[in-house]
Write a structure and sequence with these properties.
The structure holds 2 protein chains of 2 kinds. Chain A is an alpha/beta fold. Chain A folds into 2 domains: 175 residues, FAD/NAD(P)-binding domain; 142 residues, 2-Layer Sandwich (D-Amino Acid Oxidase, Chain A, domain 2), CATH 3.30.9.10. Chain A is 29% helix and 27% strand. The longest helix of chain A is centred in the N-terminal third of the chain and has 25 residues. In chain B, the strands form 3 sheets. Chain B has a 5-stranded parallel sheet with strand order 5-4-3-10-9. In chain B, strands 6-7-8 form a 3-stranded parallel sheet. Chain B has a two-stranded antiparallel sheet with strand order 1-2. Chain B is globular and about 80 Å long. Classes of the chains: A alpha/beta, B alpha/beta. Chain A: InterPro entries: FAD-dep_OxRdtase, FAD/NAD-bd_sf, Gly_oxidase_ThiO.
């Protein structure tokens, strides 16, 4: 089985690795591997605190993926000797004022109605858990099993693991899908050459809708959703675990890493393929982060980046076959690409290799956006 | 302003144009494009406002695409502007990008309350009206300010019920009544509504339309709340036109006691 995967972000990389483990001959096509959202993302593994009304199937998928992460990271480390920065020490979500606390109480009631364990903390308990939190913090929720991973370590580890199993990386842009006898037969590159394949997986994030040669009805409904992210550095322990805050109705998160990096994110902007860093974006992130943790202004500024999430109409990924036989989608993971990588890779590799697909991935077929259903 | 049109239908008319629904929607706070589409469809809205600072009109799959596909007219707004200068610039960019000279004018005083800055608002409204815009200003519930905006040439006035996104409902119904009494342009209750009864009350007070976003987009089931709002606006409007009974201290039997059949 020859498989070509367009896009070497975390989804494409993880699927390439799993498919190669399954015995496929895999080629990844990407001019700049892991340079999109995968290099900007903070790497939160927080399906519980991300929960939204009406998105229960996505929660189930997120929980399934989070629960695979420990073994996934360990397997990668064993295969490559590379550490992914995986942590499962819980996520604290705090409310800054009384209005924020009402929202958090609402979220907790919803989480509990779905049988998800969270621990409600008073403001005092929050500050005992994270002593750098501002005195005004009113209360919080601890999701003990949520955690984080460092996408900038994860992506190279996935690539190395794939390469050890013979995954080939072609650093070129895919221009279109080759179609023969009404089925996908490979990928055409920007230098005019083609790579033949039995199956093609389109995992090009927000660029997935731009690929040429797609018959009507198979163009994935994904759009770029910009996120600006700041990285700070601290020489001393500052934050113990991933901390998310609702600050006067606005959301911010801080993800600490073992090496002293603290990632602050993220804006959510509908501005097309725009990756400019803006004064307002930075200001909003720093304003909210400082309200929550006044001490952050003392930390070293390291980096600011803007990435593009692949947004889908219902915020959930598109994973599965399309109307064009042989063409599969693995895109639209929006805010959750890093979290969903393990379960997506398992599901997509199973689809490509005709193996048993995890049931939890069933609701995410691209067919739900097929024109005749709208 | 109760305006039955020439052909006898009870339509909302702004700047001479008939708008097919008295429920005007906003898009802010929607959890996803899919949910937004469902909610807008359920609301029956014909006019929906979009923050021009938060969209790229050339981007694929944006809020604007959703509105186009649903056949809903776009009302660009200047949310996020703190000065008349920014608001005027944003309105002009919207006119260029979307080809409409309608604008919902918002000039916000501060981020905590998101209340309008009346001085900047009047300044921006003057400039935009002079420049040929159809201006629908988001204003505080001050009857004097609302009247002033109308005299400047605004096509409607949009007093708040309470701060944006607060869900506190209409905090000063008396002021809204005073605004309605004096208005010669449509009065659109904008901001602060939390649930269906708030929307019905706005219409009962004589408002011509209601604009809301958060109450629907952040509800647990947005499409269901949008349906509720549609019915509430219709119910409130009908109640206003029907003319409510005077309130009285003591009961009055609905059927007369006189002339009861006696055995």
């Amino acid at each position: 089985m020859r498989i070509v995967i367009i896009g070497a972000g975390v989804i494409g990389l993880a699927t390439a690795w799993r498919a190669a483990q399954g015995g496929a001959t895999v080629t990844l096509v990407d001019p700049a591997p892991a340079s999109g959202a995968s290099s900007v993302a903070a790497g939160m593994l927080t399906p519980v605190s991300e929960l939204s009304y009406g998105e229960e199937p996505l929660l189930r998928l997120g929980l399934a993926s989070r629960d695979r992460y420990g073994a996934f990271a360990a397997e990668l480390a064993e295969a490559t000797g590379l550490d992914t920065g995986y942590r499962d020490d819980g996520t604290l979500q705090v409310a800054f004022d009384a209005d924020d606390l009402k929202l958090l109480d609402d979220l907790r009631a919803f989480q509990e109605s779905l049988g998800i364990p969270v621990e409600a903390l008073t403001g005092r308990e929050c500050r005992k858990t994270e002593p750098m939190l501002a005195p005004g913090v009113r209360g919080g929720l601890l999701a003990p099993e949520d955690g984080s991973v460092d996408p900038r370590r994860l992506a190279p580890a996935l690539l190395a693991a794939g390469e050890r199993l013979g995954v080939r990386l072609v650093r070129r842009r895919a221009e279109g899908v080759l179609v023969e006898r009404d089925a996908a037969a490979g990928v055409r590159l920007d230098d005019g050459t083609g790579i033949p394949a039995d199956k093609v997986l389109l995992a090009a994030g927000p660029w997935s809708g731009d690929l040429g040669g797609l018959p009507p009805g198979t163009v994935p409904p994904v759009r770029p959703v910009k996120g600006q992210v700041i990285r700070l550095r601290t020489p001393v322990p500052f934050l113990r675990r991933t901390t998310r805050g609702l600050v006067k109705g606005s959301s911010v998160y801080l993800v600490p890493r073992a090496d002293g990096e603290i990632v602050i994110g993220a804006t959510q902007e509908e501005l097309g393929f725009d990756t400019r860093v803006t004064a307002g974006g930075l200001w909003e992130l720093l304003r909210d982060a400082r309200e929550l943790l006044p001490g952050i202004t003392e930390l070293e500024f390291a980096e600011v980046t803007a990435g593009l999430r692949p947004g889908s109409p219902d915020n959930a990924p598109l994973m599965g076959p399309t109307a064009l036989p042989g063409l599969y989608l693995g895109t639209g993971h929006f805010r959750n690409g890093v979290l969903l990588a393990p379960v997506s890779a398992d599901a997509l590799a199973a689809m490509l290799l005709d193996g048993p697909v995890p049931a939890v991935a069933a609701p995410f077929s691209p067919a739900r956006f097929a024109p005749e259903q709208q | 302003m109760t305006n039955e049109t020439a052909n006898g239908t009870d339509a909302l008319v702004i700047a001479g144009e008939e708008i097919g629904s008295r429920l005007i929607m906003g898009t802010g706070g929607a959890p996803s494009m899919h949910v937004l589409r469902e909610a807008l469809t359920a609301s029956g809205t014909a006019l929906t406002t979009v923050a021009m600072r938060r969209v790229d009109p050339s981007a694929r799959g944006s809020v604007l695409d959703v509105l186009t596909e649903c056949g809903i007219r776009v009302l660009p707004n200047t949310a996020g502007c703190f000065t008349a200068g920014e608001a005027v610039l944003t309105a002009k960019m919207a006119r260029e990008a979307l080809g409409t000279n309608w604008v919902k004018l918002e000039v916000i005083a501060d981020e905590r309350t998101l209340l309008p800055d009346p001085i900047e608002l009047v300044e921006a409204a003057e400039q935009l009206v002079d420049d040929g815009f159809v201006v629908l200003p988001y204003t505080s519930d001050d009857p004097v300010l609302a009247h002033r905006l109308e005299r400047l040439g605004c096509a409607a006035v949009m007093p708040l019920g309470s701060p944006i996104g607060s869900g506190l409902g209409i905090r000063n119904p008396h002021n809204i009544e005073l605004i309605v009494e004096r208005a010669g342009v449509p009065v659109i209750l904008d901001a602060g509504l939390g649930t269906a009864s708030d929307a019905a009350l706005a219409m009962e007070l004589g408002c011509d339309a209601v604009l809301l976003a958060t109450a629907v987009t952040r509800a647990q089931a947005p499409a269901r709340m949008a349906t509720a709002m549609r019915h509430a606006v219709e119910a409130g409007r009908l109640a206003r036109l029907a003319g409510r009974i005077p309130k009285r201290r003591y009961a009055q039997a609905s059927s007369p006691f006189e002339g009861l059949a006696s055995s």
